[in-house]
Amino acid sequence: MDILAKIREKAKSNLQRVILCEPEDSRIIRATKEIISQQIARIILVGKKEIVLRNFSAGEIEQLEIINSDEDPLCLSAMLLKEGRADGLVAGATRTTAEVLKSLISILGCKNSLSISGAFLMQVANCQSGENGIFIFADCGVIPDPSPKQLANIAIASADLFRLLINKEPKVAMLSFSTDGSATHKFPDKVIEATNIVKELSPDLKIDGEIQADAALIPTVSERKFPSSKIKGEANVLIFPDLNCGNIAYKLTERLAKARAVGPLLQNLNKPVSDLSRGCSVHDIVDAVAITAVRAVSL
Q1: pTM
Q2: Rounded distance between C-alpha atoms, residue 183 and residue 177, angstroms
Q3: How many structural domains comprise the chain?
Q4: Among the four residues 36, 125, 147, 244, which has the most C-beta atoms within 10 Å?
Q5: Is the CB of residue 162 less than 8 Å from the CB of residue 168?
């Protein structure tokens, strides 16, 4: 059983109430049908009630909570989540990340004033790196140029997410074009500073930085380039120095390596929320709902 199937099964064991607020989208409709058929979560649809009634059977409607919205359904959904009428929210199939974040930040707020970031759960077939091809990539969707402190917060949140979803020890690589001082530039300097902050805040976390991707992922390369490495070429959480790198890397991995990429899974909000790429598939939506449900149980 692959990791996404395991997460679906975990979600089924403790059903959570997850909002979907784009019921006019055909992918949302098909995903909702699959979710209620498999009993992955209790779905709350927020939007035009007549659209929902037109696209679902009587039996399916009995399993849904439908909230009619004459206002912006995204804002209403965020309010419902804040008020505790739902456990999680998945949005973004038809809205930009900027639109989703604007509503969420103003209504839900962030944990301890931390910056929101966007992680992806990546599953690469026939891959021995990471946790048998399973990784967390971050930040791939939110902060264009994180400060060292923001980068450190991204690393800690992503390690926690890996531990929750995969139930394995996170091994974090703070990626750069330099490994252990092999180059001198302000770009790796930022990564080094961020790594030092993480080590101070989470001293038990296995983390290396700054480190190149090959040294982070390949043990034999790690031995040559970074003999004192803590992760020893077995990184399963990849932290990118900026949004350019993160977004490009996850999309290349998804399209060229045929990887599954689920996210952005928004981190450091007061409630569990998953954004969706506007290019998402039905399976992406179902998996985002399952992950959001599993995260909701832990809060």
Answers
A1: 0.89
A2: 8
A3: 2
A4: 36
A5: yes
Span 42-78, pLDDT tens digits: 999 998 888 888 888 888 898 988 999 888 899 999 9
Assess whether 121 and 232 both reside in one domain.
yes
CATH number at residue 236: 3.40.50.10750
What stretch of H or E contains 138? strand 134-138
Answer yes or no: do 251 and 167 share one domain.
yes
- Write down how long the chain is: 299
Range of the domain at 229: 112-268
Q: Are 296 and 234 found together in one domain?
A: no
User: How far is Cα 23 from Cα 34, in angstroms, rounded to an integer?
Assistant: 14
Per residue in 6-22, pLDDT (tens digit) is 999 999 999 999 999 98
Taking the C-alpha atoms of residue 21 and residue 266, their distance in angstroms, rounded to an integer, is 17
Strands ordered across the beta sheet of 42-47: 65-68, 42-47, 17-20, 88-91, 273-275, 260-267, 117-123, 134-138, 237-239, 171-175, 206-211
